[in-house]
Design a protein that fits this description.
Layout (H helix, E strand, L loop, with lengths): L2 H23 L1 H28 L1 H36 L1 H11 L1 H5 L4 H8 L2 H44 L4 H42 L5 H11 L5 H18 L3 H26 L7 H15 L1 H20 L4 H8 L11
Helix pairs in contact: 1-2, 2-3, 2-7, 2-8, 3-7, 3-9, 8-9, 8-11, 8-13, 9-10, 10-11, 12-13, 13-14
Length: 347
C-alpha cells in the first residue's frame, strides 16, 4: 500500500470505531433503522418483480403485507414454543427441585455446598429487577415493530430515488462502487437468510425427531425453539445444547439420558453447522469463523439480542464495502480469506 492508501485506511478504521461508539450511544434510534435496512435489502427483489406487473403502489403494499405476515408467523411460533416451556417449568417445579437436590448430593459429600453458595450470593432484588426489565422490554417490542414497519414502507418507496441520487454524485467512481456494493450486500443478505433458514428448518426437524425418539416431553416445542434460536449463530446452538440435557435430567432423573441428549444435539449442530451451511453458502459468505464469533460478541454487547442476530449481516456489509474500494480492500482480503471472484455475486 502507498502512503495515501495507508492514510485512507487509517481514516476508515477511525471512522468505524466512531460509528461503533455512536451505535452504542444511539442504540434506541439506530436499531430500528438498521433492522429496517436489513429487511429492505431482503424484500426489495420481491417489490421490484411485482412492480413491473401490478404497479408501484400495489407492489409496495403487497411486499409489506407478505413481509409482515412472515415476521408475525415466525414470532408466533417462537412465542408458542416459549410458552410451552414456561408452562412445563411452572408445572414441574417439584421435579426440578428434586433433580437439583439429587444432582448436588455428590458435591455436598465432598464439602461443596451448592445451595449454600447460591443462597449466599442470591439476591431476590436482582431477580425482581430482571423481571421488571423483561416486562419493559416486552412492552417496547410493539413500538419497535411499528417504527421498523414505517421505515420499511418509506425505504421501499424511496429505494429508487436514493439510488438515483447516489448515481448523480460528482465522484462517479465512488458512486459506481457504492451502487455495486449495495447490490452485492443485498445478494449476500438474501443468501445469508436463505442459508440460516434452511439450516434452522433442518435443525428444528432434527431436534424434534431426536426428542421424539428419546421420548422427551415437549418434543414439538423443542423443535420449534431449536428452529428459531438457530437464527442466532453460536448463541442459539449453545442455548439448545445446554437446555435440552437439563430438561432431560429433570424428566428422567438420571445422567445417562441427558448425556445421550447432549451428544445427540451436539452431533446435530456439528453436522448442520459444518456441512449443510457451507454447502448452501459456498464462497458467497466467505467470513472466517473467528470473525463471525467476534461479530456476534461485539454486536450482542452493543445491541443485545437484536445485535446477536444482526452481527453477521453487519459484518458482511462492512466487508463488502471494504472489498469494493482499493484503499480498504486489504482489510476484506485478510478478514474474509480472499475476495470472491469478479462477477460472482452480481445482482
Amino acid at each position: 500500500m502507498g502512503g495515501g492508501n495507508v492514510i485512507e485506511s487509517t481514516s476508515v478504521i477511525v471512522a468505524v470505531l466512531l460509528i461503533l461508539a455512536a451505535c452504542k450511544v444511539g442504540q434506541a434510534v439506530l436499531e430500528p433503522v438498521v433492522f429496517a435496512i436489513f429487511i429492505i435489502e431482503i424484500a426489495w427483489p420481491m417489490q421490484k418483480t411485482l412492480r413491473s406487473k401490478i404497479g408501484k403502489a400495489t407492489a409496495l403494499a403487497l411486499t409489506v403485507v407478505v413481509t409482515t405476515t412472515l415476521a408475525l408467523a415466525l414470532l408466533s411460533v417462537i412465542v408458542w414454543g416459549g410458552r410451552q416451556v414456561a408452562e412445563w417449568v411452572g408445572g414441574n417445579l417439584d421435579r426440578i427441585q428434586e433433580s437439583l437436590i439429587s444432582s448436588t448430593a455428590w458435591l455436598e459429600e465432598h464439602d461443596i455446598f451448592v445451595f449454600a453458595l447460591l443462597s449466599d450470593h442470591f439476591d431476590p432484588a436482582t431477580v425482581v429487577r430482571m423481571i421488571h426489565a423483561m416486562a419493559i422490554r416486552a412492552n417496547t417490542i410493539m413500538a419497535f415493530a411499528v417504527i421498523v414497519l414505517i421505515y420499511v414502507v418509506l425505504g421501499l418507496g424511496e429505494a429508487d430515488i436514493l439510488t438515483g441520487r447516489i448515481a448523480t454524485l460528482k465522484n462517479q467512481d465512488a458512486s459506481r462502487r457504492l451502487i455495486a456494493a449495495g447490490r452485492k450486500i443485498g445478494v449476500k443478505f438474501r443468501t445469508y437468510m436463505l442459508v440460516r433458514t434452511v439450516a434452522s428448518i433442518a435443525t428444528g426437524l432434527a431436534v424434534w425427531g431426536f426428542a421424539v425418539l428419546l421420548h422427551l416431553e415437549m418434543a414439538g416445542a423443542w423443535g420449534v425453539l431449536a428452529f428459531a434460536l438457530n437464527y442466532l449463530p453460536y448463541i442459539g446452538s449453545l442455548i439448545v445444547t445446554a437446555a435440552l440435557p437439563l430438561f432431560a435430567f429433570v424428566q428422567f432423573g438420571s445422567f445417562e439420558t441427558p448425556l445421550l441428549v447432549l451428544l445427540g444435539i451436539s452431533f446435530i449442530q456439528a453436522v448442520i453447522g459444518s456441512y449443510l451451511e457451507p454447502v448452501f453458502s459456498g464462497s458467497a459468505l466467505s467470513i472466517s469463523p473467528p470473525l463471525v464469533l467476534f461479530s456476534i460478541v461485539l454486536w450482542t454487547f452493543l445491541w443485545g439480542a437484536l445485535g446477536a442476530f444482526l452481527g453477521v449481516p453487519l459484518m458482511i456489509a462492512a466487508l463488502t464495502l471494504f472489498e469494493e474500494f482499493p484503499s480498504t480492500r486489504w482489510i476484506a482480503d485478510i478478514l474474509s480469506g480472499g475476495r470472491a471472484a469478479a462477477g460472482e455475486l452480481e445482482a
